[in-house]
Amino acid sequence: MANRNRNIDLKFRVTEEEKTFIEMKMKEAGITNREAYLRKMAIDGAIIVSNYDETKKLTLELNKIGTNINQIARVANTDNRISKADIKNIEEMMQKVWRLQRYGLSKKRLIKQ
């Protein structure tokens, strides 16, 4: 038996699907040694933690703003105190805000490494 530097044995159980997934990830990484792959992932792997509490609050506020804009548009359409160009400008700005929010949600945030 070879003299090993690593003399502590760690074990864990996986399902057949998890094993297949691990093997797929190993293949994607170009690593054939499972022990080396698992060690590398345990030491250097990242855990992604998603907390959308603030995003939910932002979405609620954006919905309120959208409702207010709709009310303003209704008033503007009935008595013409606000120009249609102003309404169009507000709608375009809201669309930009929504796009920014969706973009932010689509990016995964790395919390721990």
From TrEMBL:
<dbReference type="InterPro" id="IPR053842">
    <property type="entry name" value="NikA-like"/>
</dbReference>
<protein>
    <submittedName>
        <fullName>PcfF</fullName>
    </submittedName>
</protein>
<dbReference type="Pfam" id="PF21983">
    <property type="entry name" value="NikA-like"/>
</dbReference>
